[in-house]
Specification:
Elements lengths: L6 E4 L2 E7 L5 H16 L8 E9 L3 E9 L5 E3 H4 L5 H20 L12 E4 L4 E3 L6 H4 L7 H8 L8 H12 L10 H10 L10 H20 L11 H9 L3 H6 L14 H5 L38 H11 L7 E4 L6 H8 L2 H8 L6 E7 L8 H15 L11 H10 L3 E7 L2 H4 L6 H13 L3 E7 L3 H7 L12 E4 L5 H9 L10 H12 L3 H16 L5 H15 L2 H9 L1 H8 L7 H6 L2 E4 L2 E4 L2 H11 L6 H10 L3
Parallel strand pairs: 8-11, 8-12, 9-10, 10-11
Antiparallel strand pairs: 1-2, 2-4, 3-4, 5-6, 6-7, 13-14
Helix pairs in contact: 3-5, 3-8, 7-8, 8-9, 20-21, 22-23, 25-27
Length: about 625
């Protein structure tokens, strides 16, 4: 198989032509078609989405055409930018690629090659991969196109060209005396600690976690060399290690982190710009105490939880916001799932700087809560919008929908970009006082002006909202890419509890957090309610504050209708099927966090939610057979 590359025909169209030497040409084409179908299902931010593809095999060659979603002029081959990237940016590219490799491995998809010619980078710093070209593994089987080879090329280290060179490099990794200078010391320590057998093996979660952690640590060391690290102006590293599930002491004990704890959380932006950082300065600010707050959203970076479960949405969000022509999107999630908390996090100045870099200053986020009582009709909507605009800029008189262009003119004239956040947009859809013309005005404003974009939040998918009400003729929803927000991971949920417990409970934090997650699952709202009640009982010095808090939380979630809303959303028949283990796996319910896969099929994801469902359906604790026995015996 002769090596070939993707040819960019413009508008997201790529094609490749490979000569076929395989004896079974039909099987060769069928295998590649299956691979591209698997790639179409990928939802990882480091992989280009394929809208459609066409394979045309002939006797001697096979031509493939793919059409990508979201490809624009802002993407360029990595080779065009490689010499201009900082070590930190290179480490970020390698980290994104490593995360994609692990994601694909979990999905059972084999990436045939990690050839850098398939790697594109967006001007915002996000990298995305094209799928492998048919037969590329066969063409490159003598030269490992692995992630380790990618790392060598990114950091301008010599790449072995033959099997003998790779064996020689492997011997260099395994040798105790590292005097030939082929690899930096950090790489040698990393490889030795992992006892790496094959350079492309990501089959072990443990090794993958340390691979990512080491990347960022290495990037800081490359950037800073012998300089003192800056004071904690950013908690990026802290969030990263939380995302990886590695605490500071564990990382230090494994020799991954060599920095002192008081200077660990580095301002990577400053480092990336190559600025010399001072070796002394004022004491870092004390961490503000966190609390449980079930009645409000998270408002600060410190309160934000979800570096794994939410970070992909943030990553994709800025992929749309960070373009020259702002693209709108929607965040969809069940009631009290954390939608408002997420948009609050997205618009934090430090998060903006992380993703928008030098362009962060030209962006303004304008937030409108559509549950506010004054927004009951079109006039109320524009009054709320223009009030927020006037709080920021002096544009003059703004009255109705026809004045939107006055805002656009101001933005264009002053090189500004505006992102309007419409929280709880379902409240507008449910209100018949908003005519179709209203949606048309908004769509025109958001879609035709490159400096204006919108973030919607809604508990229901936009298409379902659209189909449920008389808006079928309105193309308003077509401009919004939807991102579904689900539950936290187990690690994140337990951290939400632990981080808010008093230091005096240090030896019991893990037990308390684990118990509350078992009882109430990984969704943030029930955990905040449980944490609040635990705090109240603990301060009253009760004997068993945890048991009291669990019972009081259950009563609260039952009384305020939260559990009832979940019951109605799933449906009695579906819930009964899950409880009786009569149902096939339902990925939608699993994604929403109400159901999980158990050893004997799907099961309710938390004890107290299952308790409510059983009470609602009249199923007692001993289960369905206990109910049958009671019916036979005439007992209720």
């Amino acid at each position: 198989m002769e090596k070939t590359t993707w040819q960019n025909d413009g508008n997201g169209n790529f094609r490749s032509t490979v000569l076929i030497h395989a004896p079974d040409k039909q099987s060769f084409a069928s295998e590649y078609q299956s691979y591209l179908k698997q790639w179409q299902l990928l939802t990882h931010p480091a992989a280009f989405r394929i809208a459609e593809f066409h394979i045309n095999p002939s006797d001697l060659a096979m031509q493939t055409q793919i059409v990508l979603t979201g490809f624009s002029e802002d993407y360029e081959p990595i080779g065009n930018r490689l010499s201009f990237l900082t070590p930190l940016e290179k480490a970020a590219i390698l980290q994104q690629s490593a995360d994609l490799a692990f994601y694909m491995q979990k999905q059972g998809i084999s990436q045939q090659t990690w050839d850098m010619e398939n790697l594109y980078i967006h001007k915002s710093g996000i990298c995305q991969w094209l799928p492998s070209i048919a037969g590329s593994r066969i063409a490159n089987e003598k030269i490992p196109d692995s992630l380790m080879a990618l790392a060598l090329m990114l950091f301008d280290l010599p790449v072995p060209q033959t099997d003998a060179d790779w064996r020689d490099l492997k011997l260099t990794w395994d040798t105790e005396e590292k005097t030939d200078g082929k690899l930096p010391q950090e790489w040698i320590v990393f490889i030795k600690n992992l006892s790496m057998q094959t350079d492309s093996d990501f089959g072990n979660i443990f090794r993958f976690v340390f691979f990512q952690s080491w990347l960022y640590d290495m990037a800081v060391q490359f950037l800073m060399k012998d300089k003192q690290l800056s004071l904690p102006q950013s908690d990026l590293l802290k969030h990263l290690r939380l995302f990886l599930g590695i605490d500071e002491k564990q990382a230090e004990s494994l020799a991954i982190i060599s920095h002192k704890s008081d200077i660990l959380w580095t301002d990577l932006k400053t480092a990336s710009n190559g600025e010399t950082l001072t070796t002394s300065g004022p004491e870092p600010p004390k961490k503000s105490s966190l609390s449980f707050h079930p009645d409000r959203a998270c408002n600060t970076i410190e309160e934000h939880i979800g570096q794994e479960s939410r970070e992909e949405i943030v990553f994709r969000a800025y992929g749309r916001l960070g373009t020259d022509d702002i693209q709108s999107f929607a965040i969809i999630g069940f009631s009290k799932e954390g939608k408002t908390s997420l948009v609050n996090y997205i618009r934090q100045p430090k998060v903006m700087e992380r993703y928008l870099v030098e362009n962060a200053d030209i962006y303004t986020f304008l937030y409108i809560n559509l549950r506010h009582g004054n927004i009951s009709d079109v006039a109320g909507f524009f009054n709320a919008l223009y009030k927020e605009v006037r709080n920021i800029w002096d544009i003059g008189r703004l009255k109705d929908g026809s004045d939107l262009e006055r805002i656009t003119e101001y933005l264009n004239k002053n090189n500004r970009k505006l992102v309007v956040i419409l929280d709880s947009f379902d409240q507008v859809i449910l209100n018949q006082k908003f005519p179709v013309k209203f949606y048309g005005n908004l769509r025109s404003w958001f879609s035709t002006n490159k400096n204006v974009g919108c973030i919607l939040t809604s508990p229901n998918e936009l298409q379902k909202l659209n189909a449920s009400f008389e808006l079928l003729d309105s193309p308003f929803f077509n401009i919004f890419q939807s991102y579904m927000i689900g539950p936290l991971t187990r690690i994140e949920a337990e951290y939400l509890i632990r981080s808010r417990l008093p230091d005096s409970m240090a030896d019991k934090k893990d037990d308390i957090a684990g118990r509350l997650v078992d009882e109430f699952g990984c969704r943030p709202y029930p955990l905040h309610v449980a944490g609040k009640f635990w705090t109240e009982h603990f301060l009253r010095k009760e004997k068993n504050p945890l048991d009291s808090a669990i019972e009081e939380t259950y009563k609260e979630l039952k009384a305020n209708g939260h559990y009832e809303e979940i019951f109605t959303h799933i449906g009695a028949n579906k819930i009964r099927s899950v409880l009786e283990r009569r149902t096939t796996s339902d990925d939608r319910l699993i994604k929403l966090g109400w159901v999980r896969k158990g050893e004997n099929g799907d099961e309710i994801s938390s004890k107290q939610l299952e308790r409510f469902f059983k009470e609602k359906l009249g199923i007692r604790r001993e289960g369905i057979w206990g109910n049958i026995r009671r019916l036979i015996s005439g007992r209720k």
